[in-house]
Specification:
By secondary structure, the protein is of the alpha/beta class. It has 10 helices and 6 strands; from the N terminus they run E-H-H-H-H-H-E-H-E-H-E-H-E-H-E-H.
Amino acid sequence: MSAKITTILFDCDNTLVLSESLAFEACADLANEILASRNIPDRYTGPVLLAEFVGQNFRGMMVSLKAKYKYEMGDDELETYVLKEEDKVIAKLKEKLVPCVGADDVLEKLDKEGKYLMSVVSSSALRRVKASIEKVGQDKYFQPNHVFSAATSLPKPTSKPDPAIYLHAMQVLGKKAEECVAVEDSKSGATAAYRAKIKTIGYTGSYEPHEEEKMRKVLEDAGCVVIMKDWTEFEGCLERIQKGEV
C-alpha cells in the first residue's frame, strides 16, 4: 500500500555537508587532552575517532570514552569541553566546509516543487548545525524552527541512536512517522530513525570507495529500506517509498 509522504527529515553531517572529518579533527584534539589529563597513554587521530564514533555527537563520545577508560568526569567539566568542542568545530567548518556532492541540487528541486516539508534532524549541537547549513547556503531551504539537534533541542541532551530527536521533531512539526522519510548516512542515525518507525534512505556517498559497500550493509542492517550512493538517486528512492514498494 502506498504511503502519503509529506515530510523529509535530513541528517546533516556527511549527509547534507561533508563535515565529519573536519569535526573529528577537532574532537580528537580534545579527546587527547582529556586522556592526557588522566595520565592515559592512548591517543586518537581524527580518522580513528571517526571510525569508532561516527554518527555520535561529542557529548555521546565523551560518555563512551569515560566508559571505555573508566575515569570520572563531572557535569561541569563535561559542559566546558562540550562548549570548547563547538567552538573548535565551528571554526573549522566556517573555514573549509563544502556540501555533499549533489545535495544542493536535490534541495533546490524539492524547494521549487513545494510538495514536502523539509527539516534537518541532527545529533550535533544546534549552533554547529546552523553554522554548517549557513556556510554552504542550505539554510534557505529550512525554516529556522525546522532544524533540530539531539544535543540542544531536547529537555535532556542525547544522541542518535536514541530516537528522541526524531520523535521530538515529528511532534513539533505535527507529523506522524508514516508521513515521513529520513535520510541518514550512519548506523546510529539510521537506527534512531528506525526506532522512531520512520522509513529511511541510507546514503553512502560520503564514504571512501573501499568503505562504501560495507556501509551499504551496515545501513541496511540498521533498518534503511533503500540505499543510495549518489544524490541523483534520491528521487527514485523516494518514489519507491511513496509507492509502497519498500
